[in-house]
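Q: Is it fine to ask for two folds in a single conversation?
A: Yes, each is treated on its own. Send the first.
Q: Here.
A: Result:
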Amino acid sequence: MKSRTKRLVGLLAVIALVLAACGDDTGDTTTTAAPADEETTTTAAVEGPTTTAAEAGGDMDPVTGLPVIDPLEVTGDIVTAGSSTVFPLSEAVAALFEDEGYGGQITIDSIGSGAGIERFCVAGESDIANASRPIEAEEVTQCESIDRAPIEFRVGTDALAITVSSTNYFVENLTLAELALAFSTATTWDEVNPEFPAHPIARFSPGTDSGTFDYFVEEVFEEDPEPLLNSGAQLSEDDNILVQGVSGDGCTEGDLATSCAIGYFGYAYFAENEDVLLATSIEGVAPSAESVDANEYPLSRPLFMYSAAPIIEEKPQVGQFIAFYLNRVGEVIAEVGYFPAPEEAIVEAAGHLAPLVGG
């Protein structure tokens, strides 16, 4: 409230007290309204003192409408688990949270979207589930069975990077049909495209608990994982292992006995390893901020966090961290290698949180 408004409300309060002293002592409550064009504060009769998150955090964020959280005032531990793709983004936001004064402990486990949602919805062991895919109806039912109706928060956008070693000399673009062959029945690259040399194919893929795996299967194999699972691909939940596998398996021009690897993972992991990897175009479109924003790149997807009202009510620090996340994620997301969610998606996510944190 502006200082002028405070002085006006204070003056009105004094006048009200004087009038009350001159009138009957009936014990009734008198409510004094400020002018319509000024801010107003409504105080409810409650048991004990209350402090809203807005009051604790100060101002309101002009985009999200959520309280501007001061990490110095946040106490208590926070436990998150889930997507390896969301992991580096959450890690970056948590680092900012700690740098600005948060003294508690934030646990961020990278175990895959499915495993993270299971830990949240079945075991009930985490406060936040990170996911690189939307939560499924069956998982929602599991959450609700332990009084954790999930609330969805969109936090960013990822593009899957289809990568080969930096020493690969022929793969620059793949169609979705060629990509399906490369990760299923083709044993040599000329079976993917007759213009490619006949190097053997080595495949690297995230594991089945990963939302990245789910998304790839959905887009490339129409939700049937069997072609990929039967391809002999090396699976890992650790994207760093995939990077090492692809980058370390580059073919030699003129020596068709050497294999040429292909793999996929979140764009952020490619961005961190551009010195040893190449990202192929898909359907003639390279992954970039421009192609993702224009919805032209075929393999882009939203990133999410999930929590629940009973958790935030019991552990206010969880709601404060999510509010901080939505307010500040735009400051770090490009550095991590992802793309901002559309502003309307962030505002919608903030709207889900606002009733729980005083926004």
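Q: Second one now.
A: Result:
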Amino acid sequence: MKRSAAFTLIELLVVITLIAVLAGLILTAVGNMRKVSEREAGASQLRQVGIAIGAYVAENDGFMPGPMWPGQIPVYDSGEPGEQGKGRLAYHLAPYLGIDDPAVGDDIDILIPPAFREWSEANPSVNLPRTYVLNFLVESNGEIINPWGSLVADPPTEPKLRATVPGNAWAMTDADQQNPRVASAPWRTSTPEDIIHGDNRLALTFSGSVQRIEADELAVP
């Protein structure tokens, strides 16, 4: 008697289970690879921002750009008629990022981390989303300084000489609602609920290097 070549029910269930497990592993691996790719692209963008800040400092008597807003909107504004747009990195750094003739309202792509775009597309109703938060509280020689100057202060304060700022201090980092420098800000809801790069945020230091940064390093001194 010939034996049937068909699968038994148990064999079929085993095959389906194996396919489901393999599919899950593949999807997880693809998701992890995408996150790594987004993180690397975000780090590359931050390095370019660091180079642009260095070029600005070199052409402005050693001073940091500013005064600034702490939460950075990646949109160009001419600053006219008021100071609103002048508190954005987009305004100060456009010439140093190869953006020769930006129009008011233009997105400055290099100030938008790739991982941020996914959140932004899923939350189109968010008003004026902030991609980065600047470090307004840096310890330098036993005192706390604001390297960028502040438009939040009344009256506004002016930016500091880059040479007075410790190079290993973080200058800007990913903005999200869990970030200690964002958690109490009035614009916190204009940022992602969670860290966009998974376990750690990316940070640009004042020396121009990029590194992952832990939450305790973002605590208010």
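Q: Anything structural to flag on that second result?
A: Two points. The two ends are 84 Å apart (CA to CA). Helices lie at 9-59, 89-93, 114-122.
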